[in-house]
């Protein structure tokens, strides 16, 4: 019997899921998600331990860990990835990645049609990503990227000829921009579904949008060495942009690019 842990803290919401693997069957045995604005650093690891204890498990029972690589809050992604690397290194288990936007889309795996995830990228920008959902799965149609809300909304308005269900924490600021551009082609999901859940981070970790997936990590641990996993930021941080301006050049971010390396 195999146990895996997956979590995400790239938004101001922390989501944690624990699953038991028996053969080809996966059973979710513990989930928790909660709002933690600017508090993930102090709340993530205690919540992981509480979830394990609630499921009757010790950290040593885990065979693999998966973490949300973003894109999302730079600080949240760093906290989650650093925590996951520490856990995986300490336990000697493989570390898989999952996409934060994929985990949001996974909330709508029972929806049939297009889902547009609008993540908050701060600085007046969003992370827009389209998914086609059906049969319990959501297929990502875009590479991760950052854009001004009006540019993303107008791009979707120009290209989409069918209804799209919108979700994501970027809608808290920019829902009206997308509604104005898309008109009656769009609907807004309930706000409680705009962030990942414990179930959806597990689904995203196994979906294969990010490599290695949890399934791959379990069958080929060498491909999921914790030292190999990189965050997905899609752009430079404030500090890197300041450095670029001072140096007159763009520094290497040392992280995965727009497609997350997938």
Structure explained in plain terms:
The chain has 262 residues and is an alpha/beta fold. The chain has a five-stranded mixed sheet with strand order 3-2-1-4-5, with helices on both faces. Helix 2 links the parallel strand 4 and strand 5. Helix 1 crosses helix 2 and helix 4 packs parallel to helix 5.
* Helix and strand sequence: EEEHEHEHEEEHEHEHHH
% residues in beta strands = 25-35%
- Count of separate structural domains: 2
| SS element count, helices | 8
SSE-based structural type: alpha/beta
What's the mean pLDDT score? 91
Give a brief outline of the structure:
It is built from 8 helices and 10 strands. It has helices at residues 40-54, 74-91, 100-105, 149-159, 171-182, 198-207, 214-219, 238-247, and strands at 2-8, 13-22, 25-35, 62-68, 95-98, 113-122, 125-134, 137-140, 164-167, 186-188. The chain has a 5-stranded mixed beta sheet, with helices on both faces. It has a 5-stranded mixed beta sheet with strand order 8-7-6-9-10.
Topology overview:
Layout: E1 2-8, E2 13-22, E3 25-35, H1 40-54, E4 62-68, H2 74-91, E5 95-98, H3 100-105, E6 113-122, E7 125-134, E8 137-140, H4 149-159, E9 164-167, H5 171-182, E10 186-188, H6 198-207, H7 214-219, H8 238-247
Parallel strand pairs: 1-4, 4-5, 6-9, 9-10
Antiparallel strand pairs: 1-2, 2-3, 6-7, 7-8
Provide keyphrases for this structure:
5-stranded mixed beta sheet, 10 strands, 8 helices, globular, Nucleotidyltransferase, domain 5, 262 residues, 2 domains, single chain, alpha/beta
